[in-house]
Specification:
With 261 residues, the protein is of the alpha+beta class. The chain folds into 2 domains: 2-81 and 224-258, no CATH class; 86-220, no CATH class. It is built from 2 helices and 21 strands. Helix 1 runs antiparallel to helix 2. The protein is elongated and about 100 Å long. The protein starts with a helix and ends with a helix.
């Protein structure tokens, strides 16, 4: 009965984490470039009262063992890197990647960070930056006299300049691919950083060698499906309730034992 109390407590703790992850998914259901998370559980060690195949006497072996599990824990939280729906915005600096890959940005120290959120705008110097002011690693500067900017599916950026007959090329957007994108470290602000689990980035041209093509004037929205998250919320809540009932049942059994005369 004491074992049941502690085992149920581990279940309640693990389910609290599941609800935390679900709450974060729901909160970011409208965040461009957000990738939903999922809590993954694993059982704890077992108390072995009789090992499988133990000697059962008269040269017989037990076909099964006698083991009692000691609960559950959260083994990790994985990130679902599936694509979200594309939303047309009409803003020429809103970009999306239709397929695999990440935009490569440079943080204030010059280190690369990666994102699927392509909501860019121009800063005072004409650089293409995101909402936090981080620019593309392949720095793109739009001339102040540019009348329009076009981004091709291959990431080549051209600008129409007043007085020029032909658009001029001002830069090339590159994308990064990873062997295991789910192994990237989430840093918040829809940014990811490389880890030993993700592997080293493979920098390439959009639309080539398995990389997704660039879409201009549209954003990739969150891949959170609110209905699915509501189902996860309900199932997690009910499982938490059942674990609390086990605690209550174990407490009542202990009470009955204490009341024995």
């Amino acid at each position: 009965m004491i074992r049941a109390l502690s085992t149920s407590a581990t279940g309640m703790n693990a389910l609290q984490t599941k609800l935390d992850v679900t709450a974060n998914n729901v909160a970011n259901s409208s965040t461009a470039g957000f990738k939903k998370g999922r809590a993954e559980f694993e059982d704890l060690m077992y108390q072995t009262l009789r090992a499988p195949g133990a000697n059962a006497g008269a040269n017989n072996r037990a076909g099964t063992g006698l083991q009692v599990g000691l609960g559950v824990r959260v083994g990790g939280t994985s990130v679902d890197m599936s694509e979200g729906d594309l939303q047309q915005t009409g803003n020429p600096f809103d970009l999306s990647i239709k397929g695999r890959g990440f935009f490569v940005l440079a943080d204030p120290e010059g280190n690369p960070v990666y994102t699927r959120n392509g909501a860019f705008h121009l800063d005072a110097e004409g650089r293409m930056v995101n909402a936090q002011g981080l620019g593309l690693a392949a720095e793109i500067v739009v001339p102040p006299d540019a009348q329009s900017v076009t981004v091709g599916e291959d990431g080549i950026i051209t600008a129409s300049i007043a007085g020029e007959a032909e658009p001029i090329e001002i830069g090339q957007i590159e994308v990064a691919n990873f062997t295991n994108p789910a192994g990237l470290q989430a840093e918040g602000k829809t940014l990811f950083t490389e880890t030993a689990a993700s592997g080293t980035p493979i920098i390439g041209i959009p639309g080539a060698e398995g990389s997704g093509a660039i879409g201009q004037g549209m954003l990739e929205m969150s891949n959170v499906k609110v209905v699915e998250e509501m189902i996860n919320l309900i199932s997690g809540q009910r499982a938490y309730e059942v674990n609390s009932r086990v605690v209550q049942a174990a407490d009542e059994m202990l009470q009955q034992t204490a009341n024995l005369r």
